[in-house]
Design brief:
heterotrimer; A alpha+beta; B alpha+beta; C alpha/beta; A: alpha+beta; 4-stranded mixed sheet; 3 helices; C: alpha/beta; Arc Repressor Mutant, subunit A; 2 domains; 5-stranded parallel sheet; 12 strands
C-alpha cells in the first residue's frame, strides 16, 4: 500500500511547474576574442612565417585577407602574392569548408602564396572557435584545376 | 477493512481505483514529461541565443576591452544582462541582482557556459553565465576575463506547464466515470457465474441434488463450477445408493415380519389347545408349555411392532381420524388394561379432538406401561388443552431417566442397560409412540422432573378429519 | 356349537385354527382354495364362514362377494393387520367382521358368537314404520310385504337402531352393541354395514329414509 502512495506523490510532484535546479552545464563557452590578427608571410629562406598584427581585435577572415594582400609591414618578410588593385575576398562558410573567391589568377600567386592565403584564413577561423581540420578551397579568377583543391595549412595541424 | 463489504462492492472500488489511478498516472506523467521537455528546450534555446549573440560580436570586440566595448557587448546580448571584465562592469535591468554566487563560482571554475533555475519573487527564472574564451592557434583555450551573465523570466513556460497540468487533471476526471462503468461491467461478468454457483450450492444444501450450473468459458470459475457439479454428481450417486440400500433393508424387515406371521398364526392357534392340555401334564412339561405360550405371545408382539415400524418407514401408515373425546379414550385405554386404580388420571371433561383413536391408545398404553414398569407410583396422567393443542403428560415418581439415556430414549431397540434386556416389550414401543405422535403432526418429548421421569405428548387440535 | 367353514390356504394355519375352534365347540369344515370353499359352502350350508383374504385362485374378496350373493350366512375375514386395502375391500364385499392374524382362538370365537347372536333378547313384537315391518320375534323384515334377506349383522344393526327411533347412536356405541367390539373397534364396519342395509331397505340409498346419517355423531332410525 505504501508503494502506491509513493508513486502517487511522485506523479503529483512532477506536474508542479518549473522546479529550481542547481548549476548545470550549458555547453562550450563562446570564444573569438583576440588581441590581434595573425598574417602569414614568407621569410628569406622561403619559409612560411606567422606575423601577429596587434589590432586589438580578431576581426573577420575578409579583414585578415585584405590586410594580407596589402603586403608586409616588416622588411625581413615578403609576400608571394601579387598586389591587387581590389584586395577584396569573398568568403563562403559551410561546415568543414571555407571557400575563398580571390581577385587573382593562378599566375599571380606562387604555391607558397596560396599557403599564405590558406593559413591566414584558417588562423582566423580557428581563433574564432572553428575546428582546426576545416579545409580551405581557394578559387581563382581564371579557370584552373587549382581552384578545385581542398587545402590545409602546413603550420596549423588538424590535431 | 474492505472485507466488510460484498464482493461486488470490493471489486467495484478496487477496479475503479486502479483504473482512475492508472489514468491519472498516465496523464500526470505525460504532463510531467512534457513540462520537463518544455523547460529543457526553453533553456537550450536561451543559452544558444546567448552564445550566438556573443560569438557574433566577439571578432569585433576590442581586447582588452574598455567600458564602451563592454557596453556594446551587453547591448548585443540584450535583455537583463551583465558583462564583467576585471573591475569593469556593464549591467542593465533590475533583475541582474538575482545572479547567484554559485553561478559565478561555476563560471570561473568550469570555464564553460552554465545555467541555473531559481524561484524568486514568486516567479521562476533561468540564470545563465559564461566566460568568453581566447583560442590560441594550437586550439588551446584560455579565459579572457570577460564574463557574461543573463537573467531570463520563465513565467511563460510555467504558464504552459500549468495548462498541461490542468488538461491532465481534466483527463483524469473524465477517466473516473468511465472506470466506474468498466468496473460495473467487469464485476458483473465475474459475479454472475459466482452468483449462479451460490444459487446452485444453496439448492444442493437444501437437498435438491439435481441442481447443477452450466460452466461458461475456461477460467477458474468454470473449473470451480465443473468441480461443484462433479461433487453434486458423486453425492447424488452415493445418496441414491444409500437410499436404495436403506429401502432394501426396510423391505427385508417388512418381508421377514410378514413371513413370520403365518407360522405365528399357527402357533397362536394351537397355544390355547396346549394350554388347555397343560393341566394334565407333569410339572416339567407344564412349565415348558407355559414358556412356549408366553414366548409366542412376545414373538407376536415383536412381529406386530416390526410391521408397524415398517409401515412408518415405507410411508404407508395412515391416520384414521375421527372425533375423539380424549379423556374418554385415555380412560378406556387404562380401563382395558386394568390400570385405572394404579394411575392418577387428571382430565377435564369434553376435550374432543380429531385424531386416530387406535394410535392414541398405542401411545398412551406405551407411556403408562413404561411408567408402571420402570418408575414408581404414583403414576400420573394429566390432560390439558389450549386453543391449538392437547397436552397429555405422563409422569412417575421413580428414579427418572439417566442423563445418558435421554437422547436415545426414542431409538429403536435401545436398551438403557444390559440388565434390562429381558424386560417385556419389543424395544420398539417408544419409537412407535413417537412416530404415531408425528403422524398426527404432534410431538413426544422425554424429560425428568423432580422425582421421576416425565413424557409429554402434544397433539394439534386442528387435524383434518378424513373419514 | 356352530357349523363353520374355514377357508385358508396355509395347511398348518388351517389345521391349527380347526383344532382351536373345535375346542371351542364348533364343527369346523375346511377348504384350501376359494373354489373348494365355494363348493363346500353350497354343499354344506355352514352357519358362518371364516375366510382368509389371501388365497390362490379366486381371491378372498371375490369369494366373500359370491357368498353374500348366495345368502345371508355371515362372513368373518382373516386378514394381515394394517393391510387396509384388504380390510376396505373385504368390508365392501360384505364381510360382517374381521380379525387380524395371528389371532387368538378365544378372540375369533368371541367374534363368531357375536356375529351369530341374533335378536339380542329384544322380543317386543312387530315394529312397523311406513312400508317397513320388523318382526322381532320371528326375526324377519318385510318391505312392501316382501321379505328382505338380511345377514345376522344387518338384522342386528336394524334391530338396535329401530329399538329407539330418533335416538342417535354413535359408531362407537353401535360397535359395542352390534359387534360386541371393545373401544378400539373399527368404525368402518358400521359404515359398510349401514350401506348394505340401506341397499336392501331404502328406496333411494342416496337419500335414506330409515337409516339416517347424523353428521359428526353417527346414525339414527327414522322416520321421526
Amino acid at each position: 500500500m505504501n508503494r502506491i502512495w509513493l508513486v502517487l506523490a511522485a506523479v503529483l510532484l512532477v506536474g508542479c511547474g518549473v522546479q529550481p535546479s542547481g548549476v548545470t552545464d550549458g555547453g562550450e563557452a563562446p570564444t573569438g576574442l583576440a588581441p590581434g590578427v595573425t598574417l602569414y608571410f614568407v621569410d628569406a629562406d622561403e619559409q612560411l612565417t606567422p606575423e601577429p598584427r596587434p589590432s586589438q581585435r580578431l576581426g573577420t577572415i575578409e579583414d585578415a585577407l585584405s590586410l594580407l594582400m596589402s603586403g608586409t609591414s616588416n622588411s625581413p618578410l615578403h609576400t608571394e602574392i601579387r598586389a591587387s588593385s581590389v584586395p577584396r575576398v569573398n568568403v563562403t562558410r559551410s561546415p568543414g569548408l571555407i571557400q575563398l573567391d580571390v581577385p587573382l589568377s593562378i599566375y599571380e600567386v606562387t604555391p607558397l602564396g596560396i599557403d599564405q592565403i590558406v593559413c591566414t584564413a584558417l588562423a582566423v577561423h580557428v581563433q574564432s572557435g572553428g575546428p582546426r581540420d576545416t579545409r580551405v578551397q581557394v578559387r581563382f579568377t581564371l579557370p584552373t584545376a587549382e581552384s578545385a583543391k581542398l587545402r590545409t595549412c602546413p603550420l596549423i595541424k588538424a590535431s | 477493512m474492505i472485507r466488510r463489504f460484498g464482493l461486488r462492492t470490493r471489486l467495484l472500488v478496487v477496479f475503479a481505483l486502479v483504473t482512475a489511478l492508472g489514468a491519472t498516472a498516465a496523464a500526470w506523467s505525460s504532463a510531467g514529461t512534457a513540462s520537463i521537455a518544455l523547460v529543457d528546450s526553453t533553456q537550450r534555446r536561451l543559452t544558444e541565443t546567448t552564445v550566438n549573440q556573443i560569438t557574433a560580436h566577439t571578432p569585433e570586440l576590442i581586447y582588452p576591452p574598455d567600458q564602451a566595448a563592454l557596453d556594446r557587448l551587453r547591448a548585443a546580448v540584450g535583455g537583463d544582462t551583465a558583462v564583467v571584465y576585471k573591475n569593469l562592469r556593464s549591467a542593465d535591468g533590475t533583475d541582474v541582482g538575482l545572479i547567484t554566487d554559485a553561478l559565478r563560482d561555476a563560471v570561473r571554475a568550469r570555464n564553460r557556459l552554465v545555467a541555473q533555475r531559481i524561484t524568486a519573487n514568486d516567479k521562476p527564472w533561468l540564470l545563465t553565465g559564461t566566460p568568453i574564451m581566447i583560442t590560441a592557434l594550437d586550439g588551446a583555450r584560455t579565459p579572457s576575463g570577460i564574463e557574461v551573465y543573463s537573467v531570463h523570466d520563465l513565467s511563460g513556460v510555467e504558464q504552459q506547464i500549468s495548462d498541461l497540468t490542468r488538461s491532465a487533471a481534466v483527463t483524469s476526471a473524465l477517466a473516473l466515470p468511465l472506470a466506474a462503468i468498466l468496473a460495473l461491467v467487469a464485476a458483473g461478468s465475474v459475479l454472475r457465474p459466482v452468483r449462479k454457483l451460490r444459487d446452485t450450492a444453496r439448492r444442493l444444501a437444501a437437498g435438491d441434488l439435481d441442481a447443477r450450473s452450466q460452466p461458461q468459458g475456461a477460467d477458474e470459475l468454470a473449473e470451480l463450477t465443473v468441480t461443484i457439479n462433479e461433487m453434486a454428481e458423486s453425492v447424488q450417486t452415493s445418496m441414491a445408493a444409500m437410499q436404495r440400500m436403506q429401502a432394501d433393508a426396510r423391505r427385508f424387515a417388512a418381508d421377514v415380519s410378514h413371513e413370520l406371521r403365518t407360522p405365528l398364526s399357527t402357533l397362536t392357534a394351537v397355544m390355547e389347545v396346549l394350554e388347555g392340555a397343560a393341566d394334565r401334564m407333569d410339572a416339567d412339561a407344564k412349565e415348558s408349555a407355559q414358556l412356549a405360550i408366553t414366548e409366542t405371545g412376545r414373538l407376536v408382539q415383536l412381529v406386530e411392532d416390526l410391521m408397524e415400524v415398517s409401515r412408518f418407514d415405507a410411508g404407508t401408515a395412515h391416520l384414521r381420524v375421527e372425533q375423539v373425546d380424549v379423556a374418554g379414550a385415555v380412560r378406556d385405554c387404562l380401563r382395558a388394561r386394568g390400570w385405572l386404580d394404579r394411575v392418577d388420571l387428571v382430565a377435564p371433561d369434553a376435550i374432543t379432538v380429531p385424531l386416530d383413536r387406535r394410535r392414541l391408545d398405542v401411545i398412551v398404553a406405551n407411556l403408562v406401561g413404561n411408567a408402571l414398569r420402570h418408575g414408581r407410583p404414583p403414576v400420573r396422567v394429566r390432560l390439558s388443552a389450549s386453543a391449538e393443542q392437547v397436552r397429555i403428560t405422563v409422569s412417575d415418581h421413580g428414579p427418572g431417566l439417566p442423563e445418558h439415556v435421554l437422547p436415545h430414549v426414542f431409538d429403536r431397540f435401545y436398551k438403557a442397560d444390559a440388565a434390562r434386556t429381558r424386560t417385556p416389550g419389543s424395544g420398539l414401543g417408544l419409537a412407535i409412540a413417537l412416530e404415531n405422535a408425528r403422524l398426527h403432526g404432534g410431538d413426544l418429548m422425554a424429560g425428568n422432573v423432580a422425582g421421576g421421569a416425565r413424557f409429554v405428548l402434544l397433539l394439534p387440535r386442528d387435524l383434518e378429519e378424513t373419514s | 356349537m356352530a357349523a363353520i367353514l374355514l377357508i385358508e390356504d396355509d395347511p398348518l394355519v388351517r389345521r391349527g385354527l380347526q383344532l382351536a375352534l373345535a375346542r371351542h365347540g364348533h364343527d369346523v369344515r375346511t377348504a384350501e382354495t376359494g373354489e373348494d370353499g365355494l363348493r363346500e359352502f353350497h354343499s354344506a350350508t355352514p352357519d358362518l364362514v371364516v375366510l382368509d383374504l389371501m388365497l390362490p385362485g379366486i381371491d378372498g374378496i371375490e369369494v366373500c362377494r359370491r357368498i353374500r350373493q348366495a345368502g345371508t350366512a355371515p362372513v368373518v375375514m382373516l386378514t394381515a393387520r394394517g393391510d387396509d386395502f384388504d380390510i376396505v375391500g373385504g368390508l365392501a364385499a360384505g364381510a360382517d367382521d374381521y380379525v387380524v392374524k395371528p389371532v387368538q382362538p378365544t378372540v375369533l370365537d368371541a367374534r363368531i358368537r357375536a356375529v351369530l347372536r341374533r335378536g339380542n333378547g329384544v322380543t317386543d313384537g312387530v315394529r312397523a314404520h311406513r312400508d317397513l315391518r320388523i318382526d322381532t320375534v320371528a326375526l324377519t323384515v318385510t318391505l312392501h310385504g316382501e321379505q328382505v334377506m338380511l345377514t345376522p349383522t344387518e338384522l342386528r344393526l336394524l334391530l338396535t337402531l329401530s329399538r329407539a327411533p330418533g335416538r342417535v347412536f354413535s359408531r362407537q356405541q353401535l360397535l359395542e352393541e352390534v359387534w360386541e367390539h371393545d373401544y378400539l373397534g373399527d368404525s368402518r364396519l358400521v359404515d359398510n354395514c349401514v350401506q348394505r342395509l340401506r341397499a336392501k331397505i331404502e328406496a333411494s340409498p342416496a337419500s335414506p329414509e330409515y337409516v339416517q346419517t347424523v353428521r359428526g355423531f353417527g346414525y339414527r332410525f327414522g322416520p321421526v
